[in-house]
Design brief:
The complex is a heterodimer of chains A (865) and B (360). Chain A is mostly helical and 865 residues long. Chain A is built from 26 helices and no strands. Chain B is mainly beta and 360 residues long. The two termini of chain B are 15 Å apart. The chains are: A mainly alpha (865), B mainly beta (360). Chain A: This is Vacuolar protein sorting-associated protein 51 homolog.
Chain lengths: 865, 360
Amino acid sequence: MDVDADGSVAMSEESGRRRKVHGMLKLYYGLNEEGKAPEQPESLNPCDINGPHFDPELYLNKLRKECSLAELMDQETCMVKQIRSLDSDMQTLVYENYNKFISATDTIRKMKNDFKKMEDEMDCLSTNMAAITDFSARISGTLQDQHAQITKLSGVHMLLRKLQFLFELPARLNKCLELQAYAQAVSFHRRARCVLQQYSHLPSFKGIQDDCHAIMEKLAQELRQKFRDGGTSAKDLSECVELLLQLDEPAEELCDKFLSHARSRLELDLQSLEAEIKPYPASKKEASTRRSSGNMSSGSPTDNSPKMSSLSSPTLNTDILEFIDRGCNEFVSSLCLVITSYQELFINHAQTGELASKNILQMANGKLHTFVDDLTTRYFSLVERRIQEEKGVSDNSLLVRALDRFHRRLQAVSKLLPGSAVPNRGTEIVIRAATERVKQYLCALQNFYMDSLTDVRQALATPRLSVAGGAAHLGGPVTGRDAPASLPELLSSLSASILNQIKSVLASVHLFTAKDITFSNKPYFKGEFCSQGVRESLVVSFIKFVCQSSRNFCESAGDKGGSTPPALLLLLSRLCLDFETSTISYILTLTDEQFLVQHHSPITPVTALCAEAREAAQKLLNHYVKVQGLIISQMLRKSVETRDWVNTIEPRNVRAVMKRVVEDTTSIDVQVGLLYEEGVRKAHSSDSSKRTFSVYSSSRQQARYAASYTPSAPMDTNLLSNIHKLFSERIDIFSSVEFNKVSVMTGIIKISLKTFLECVRLRTFGRYGLQQIQVDCHYLQMYLWRFVSDENLVHFLLDEIVGSSAHRCLDPSPMEQSVIEVICERGFNNMRWSLKLGGSQGFLSICYHLTSASNWLGPVCPTLF
Amino acid sequence: MEDDAPVIYGLEFQARALTAQTAETDAIRFLVGTQSLKFDNQIHIIDFDDENNVINKNVLLHQAGEIWHIAASPADKAVLSTCYNKTSDSRVVSCAAVWRMPSDWESGSHESPDDSAHNPQTLELLCRLDDSSHGNAAWSCGSLQVSSAATLEGKGQLKFTSGKWSPHHNCSQLATANDTAIRGWDLRTMSQIYCIENAHGQLVRDLDFNPNRQYYLASCGDDCKVKFWDVRNVQEPVKTLEEHSHWVWSVCYNHSHDQLVLTASSDSRLILSNMVSISSEPFGHLVDDEELSEGEDNHQEDKTKEPLKDSVVSTYEEHEDSVYAAEWSSADPWLFASLSYDGRLVINRVPRALKYRILL
C-alpha cells in the first residue's frame, strides 16, 4: 500500500517534473503555443535564470555581491545538478525522436508498394467497361424498329376500344336505364360526351350522339320524376341531384327543387311536433289554473301536462325533454342532413367543379340561409310555445336538460352554417326560458311565503291543547290559557322552511349554470343571468317582497288593529330582524358563491337590504306594541268611562279589570320573552312593590291645592309641579321601541297608562272613586314595575293618574296607605294562589271573593296567604 | 330673522277651554276657562300686546261650574258661551249657557289690574241651553244657538265628542264627531248629508273646516293622526299626518292662510304644519296680473322661488302637560295660543321665514 502510494506520488512528481522540463525545452526552442506566448508575462528580470533576458554577467555579479561563500558554493552545486539533469533530459528526447523518425520512414516505403498494385487493377476494369458499352449500343440499334411498331399498334388498339365504347354507348345506356343504374349511365355519358361533341361533324358519330342525347334525355326525365316523387330517402335524393347536376341541369332550379322537397319533409316533422302542443291552447286555461292552484310547496309532483288532454291523444303526456328530444332527433337532425347534403351538392361541388362561378355559390348559399331561417323560425316558435307550457316549477332539471339538448343540437347547425343567426336565436330562446323560469320561481317563493304565513296564522289561531314541555315551565296557566303554539318553534320552522325553499330554488336555478350545460358558458349566463337574473330578480326581489308584505301587515291591519293577530306581528318582526342580522347576508353570500356573481352591473348591496329588513322589523314591532297597547288601553278606557265614579262604593278589592290588565301584560311578557331577549333595565330598588304613593304625602300635590287664589303672575304657578316635571324626561307614548322584551313591554305599558291618565282626567270622582283609583294604581304598581326598563316611568305615570283623579275628586280624602297595601296584598296573594292552582278566570274570581269576604273585617295578616 | 320667544302665562287651575275672541279684530285677545271642582271657576281674558310682548289679563268669575268648553260670539264681543259641569247632590250635570261679559271690565282692568283679580266681576247670564243630555259635547255656538237645540233632538241616542259649524253654505251645515265617525248635517232639511265612517281608528277628538275651501275639513283623534278630508269623497282621506306621539285633541285652520294647521296633542306638543298642497293657494301667493305688468323683477323672483312642500313647520315643546286646546288669534293671523292641562297658556308666532314666504 505504502509502496503504491509512494509510487503514485513519485509518478505524479515525475510527471510534474517532466512537464516542467518540457516547458523549459519548449521555451528554449521557442515552441510556444501560438497566442499563449505573448500573453504570458515575460520576466524582464535579467537575473531570472529561466527568463529570456538572462544576463549571466549580471547574475554572477549579483550572486557574488549578495551571497556568502557558503551560499555561493551551494548555489554552484545546485546549478551543476540542474545542468546535469537538463543534459540527460535532452539526450532522452533526442533518442525518442530518432526512433519515431525511423518507424515513419518504414511505413512510407510500405505504402508505395501497395499503390502500385492497385493501379494495375484499375486499368483492367476500365477496358472491360468499354467493351460492355459497345455491345449494348449494338443491341438497342437492332431492336428499335420493332419497338416503334408495337407502340403504334397499341395506340390503334386504344382508339378502337374507344370507338367500340362509343358505338356500344347507346346500348349500354339503355341497359343502364333498364337496370336503373343511373349513376353508371351518367358517368358513361360524361366520358363520351366531349368526344362526341368534337366529332359531331362526322355522320356516324352524330348518330351516336343523337341516340345518346335521346337516352340521356329520358334518363334525366326519369331522374326528375324520381326527384319529384319524393318518396325516396335523403340519400337517394342527393344522389339524384348529383346526377342531374352532372347532366348540366340548371343549379338554381335544382336548389329550389331540392329545398322545396326537403321543406316538405321537414314540415312533416314540424307538424308532428306541433300536434303535440296543439291541444294545449284549448285546455290551457284549465291547465294554468290547475297549476297555479297546485300547491308546489307540498312537494307533490305537479302534473306537467294536464290529464284531461291526455284523453284526446296518448302522445300528449310527453314531457318537455321528450318533446325537445323528438324535435332534435327528427327535425334538427334531418335539417342538418339536408344542410350537409345541400352543401355537398351545390356548394362544395361548385367550388371544385365546373359550376365554379361565384353567382351560383352565392345564390346557393343565400337560398340555404333563407330556407334554414324560415324553418328554424317555425321550429323555434314551436319550442317556445312548448316551453311556455312548462309552468310547474317542480322539476327544473328536466327543463334545463331539454334546453341544453336543444342548444347543443343547434351547435351542429351553427357548425354547418357558420354565418347563420340560428344559434343566436336559439340562445335567446334559452335565455328567455331561463328568465321566465326565474320569474316563476320568484312567484313560487312568494306564494310559498304567503302560504307559510297562512299556516302560521292557523297555528296561532288554534291554541295547543297540551301545554307540553317547552311552554309549561314558562309560567303556568297564563301561558296555557292563551299562548299559542310555541312561538320560537313556529319562528324557527318558518325561517327554516323559507331558507330551505330559497336553497332549493337556488339549486334548481343553479342547474342553468352547471358546467356540463352547453349554454352555461355564454356570456349572458356567466354574467347577467347570475347578477341580474338570479341575484337581483330572484333573491333580492324575494327579500324585498318579504319586507314589503310584512310592512303591509302594519298598514292593512287598519286603524282598528284587528285583522292581524298580534303574535303574528311579533313573529314577523323577529323574522325580519333575523333576516337583518344573519339570513340576508347568508343567502346573498350563498348566491354569490354559487353563481360566482361578478359585480359588473349595479346590484343591491347587502346593507341596503338589511336596512330594509330592519326597518320592517322595527315597524312591525312598533305596530305590535301599538296593537297590544290599544287592547289593554281599551279595557282601561271602558272601565273608567262606564263607571259612575261619584257614587261608587268604598273599595274593598282591586277591580277585576286591573287583574285582567296584569294578566294580559304577563302573557304578553311571556309571548315577547319567547322571541326577544330580556334587554337592559335600570336597576330598581328591592322593595319596588312596596313603594308608597305620593298622593298627599308629597309636597307637590299639597302645593297645588294650597295655592288657591294667590294672584297669578305669569310663570310662577304650579312651579313645584313644573320643576318636578323638568327632572323627569318627556315621555313619548307611541314611540319606537328597541328590539328587546323590556323595551316592548315599556312601550305597551306606557300606552296603557297614558290612556288611563287621559280617561281619568275626563271624569269626576267621588271620595270612594278616588280611593278605588288609589287601590287600582297601587295594584298596578305592584306588578308592572317588573316589566319596564325604568320603573320610575311607571311610578311617574301612576302618580299622575292618582294625582289627576285626586284633583278631579269632589271630596278628596285618600285612603290610608296601609289599607291600600292590605287590599292589594290580598289580591297579590290570590293571584299567586290561583296561578299555582292553574285556575281559570272564573275560578280565580271565586277564590278572590271568598278570601275577601272572610278577611275584610278581621285582623289582616298577609302572610297567611 | 330670529323669531320672538314664546310668551308663557300660567293659570292656577287646570284648564281645557280656550278660544279667541272672534268678534275682536283689533286686539289680540284669548279667553280661557278653568276647571276646578272646589273653587269658583274663572274666565281669564288675556290680552297680548304684540309690540311689547306683554300679557294683560282680566278675570271673570264663572260660578256655575267647571268649564269644559268655551266659545266667543262671532258678532258681539261681549257674548260668549260655555259648556260646563255642575255638581249638585253628588251628581254631575252637564250644562251650557250663553253669557254676556260685564261692560266695564275693560276700563276697570286698565285702572287697577290687581284689583280686578281680587274682585272678579261675575258674568251676566243671557240664557241657558238645554244641553244636559249630551255630556261634554262641545259646541262652537255662535249667534245661531236657536237652531242647535232642534238639531240635537234629531240624533239623540248618539254620543258626540265634538261639533263644528261649517263657515260655508250660509251657515246651514255643521259636522259632528261621533266615536270614530264624522257626520255632516244640513239644518235646512235636518238630515245627515254625509258620514265618514271610521274616520279615525279610535275616537275622533276634534274637527275643523277649511275656511276657504268649502268641502275640506280636518279631523284628529286618538290614533295620533290628523286627517284631511274632502267630504265629497268620504272613502279616503286626502292627506294624513302622523307627527304626534299621542292623542291629538285639537286641530285648527288658520283663518286667512289655510295652509297653516295647528294641532295640539296630549304628548305635550303643539305642531304647526304647512299643508300647501291641499290649501286654497297650492302654488303660493297668486300674483295679480297688474302686479305682473308693473314689475318684471317680481315675476322673475316668483319663478325662482320653488313652491313650498307639505311639511311640519315647527314643533312647540313649551308645555309640560297634555295640550288640550290651541287657537289662532282672530286679530293677528300669525299668532296663536295653546293651553295645557296644568294651566299654562303659551302664545307663539308663525316663524318669520315662513311668514314672508307665504306673503311675498
